[in-house]
Amino acid sequence: MKEKIKARVMDSRKIKRAFNRMATEITERNRDLNNLVIIGIRTRGVHIAKRIAKLIKEYDNVEVPMGILDITLYRDDFSELEDKHIVKKTEINFSIENKDVLLVDDVLFTGRTIRAAMDSLIDLGRPKTIQLLVFIDRGHKELPIKADYTGKSLPTSRREQVKVKLKEIDKKDEVLITEPGGIG
Amino acid sequence: MSFNKKHLLGIQYLTKSEILTILDTAESLKEISKREVKKVPALRGKTIINLFFEPSTRTRSSFELAAKRLSADISSFSKASSSAVKGETLKDTVLNLEAMQTDALIIRHSASGTPHFLSTFCRSHVINAGDGTHEHPTQALLDAFTIREEKGKLKGLKVVIVGDILHSRVARSNMFLLNKMGVKVVLVGPPGLVPPQMARLGAQVDYNMDRAVQDADVIMMLRIQLERQQKNFFPSVREYRNLFSLTPKRFETARKNAIIMHPGPINRDIEISTQLADSLKSVILKQVENGIAIRMAVLYLLLGGKERDVTD
């Protein structure tokens, strides 16, 4: 489907500033950084998580363990209508028991991904806390879920889509609001 | 990657890309069995029935555990405990089970083609767990998965399959699969058990095991089906052992990193020496471990994993 770019809401400078701010907030709030682990939700959450881990290392010289979560098997929106979703690996090579888990995703929309991610985490152990970082909070939540750290709050209409583009996969850092194009 | 089949009847009917989707999905799912809580909710609410009209320990419990690790509900029936002993036809048995709102039927039967027959009238997904001398698709998939895991690839390898090829559905499914993936297959055994026509299925036939195992990357031993030997497919077990048993001496001529496989159950010191079966070169128990991941992948791809939209 063709899509139309409606607005470029963040460029690489703004994105960098947002990352720096969030990393500072995390280090301020988590006194014991040695108890912190970061888990990124596939796909873009993983790259955001890596950048945060790198910044924490720069600021406080703490190496925070990083894991990757695939939430496909925990989704609640399975139906028989469309293509199957391919399962990818969950790679968490440490125990999350009693840890402060920082869960990372790119966009917070309905909250259902985060619900699935929390169910999945809790099956892996009992963390001391779960904190949520999202790069964009776009509204329209369907579940009582709120982010602890947000790159930017961006009110949108349901029809619009928010694209967080990252250098690691998209060659360029930017945040776009797009809309599905007209017929044809 | 995509997978849009309704049933899993055999490797013959799968494309290379579908096979790769199953293998890759299994790779993602394998980690679940190593967790403390070995369970994910993906197939919650699905009902699966294991219908085993032939004896089995591995395949049956493997399917059961795979279903349970995906949170599906599964019941198992064996021939002895089913109404088949009271004279009910297979079709009636299946229709009665389907009336209980099943989502999938896993069937093993001594008659080749039984899963096909079920697929002609079943609403549920049909999964072939071994039919006569036809196919045993999940075994071939777990074998390919194990080879790929050990060797890092499939294409270009040489796999030697030794034993009772004639009666082996494992050999047939493996041949179909390995052919599609660009693996060279050599079949070895006494002529009574390896008719030269088998070459038409896309393999090379060799009656000299010493020659065949040279340069092999994988040696797959099959069980000598002693229960079928009344018909004299080969002169004697002693002669068979002399010519076709995998011994340390024979194994020496294979490639340095060659691995030994066996679908089980093994006859120790008949088709394979105990020493080799228990050696580090043997991946027999890894095959069993990978069987769970493969069956989870098959169940997941057939029964679940479809979704409306990904906007979140």
Structural summary, described in words:
The complex is a heterodimer of chains A (184) and B (312). Chain A is 28% helix and 29% strand. Chain A has helices spanning 12-29, 44-60, 112-124, 167-170; strands at 3-10, 36-41, 66-69, 100-108, 129-137, 149-153, 161-165, 174-180. In chain A, the strands form two sheets. Chain A has a five-stranded parallel β-sheet with strand order 3-2-4-5-6. Chain A has a three-stranded antiparallel β-sheet with strand order 1-8-7. In chain A, strand 2, helix 2 (44-60) and strand 3 form a beta-alpha-beta unit. In chain A, helix 1 (12-29) crosses helix 2 (44-60). The longest helix of chain A has 18 residues, at 12-29. A five-stranded parallel β-sheet of chain B has the order 7-6-5-8-9. Chain B is globular. Chain B has helices at residues 16-29, 58-69, 90-98, 114-121, 137-151, 169-180, 209-213, 237-244, 248-251, 274-277, 284-303, and strands spanning 47-52, 73-78, 104-109, 125-131, 158-162, 184-188, 204-206, 218-221, 259-261. With 312 residues, chain B is an alpha/beta fold. Chain A binds chain B through residues 70, 72-75, 77-91, 107, 109-113, 119-120, 123-125, 161, and chain B through 1-4, 21, 24-25, 27-29, 31, 35-37, 39-42, 70, 300-301, 304-312.
Summarize the structure.
The complex is a heterodimer of chains A (184) and B (312). With 184 residues, chain A is an alpha/beta fold. Helix content of chain A is 28%, strand content 29%.
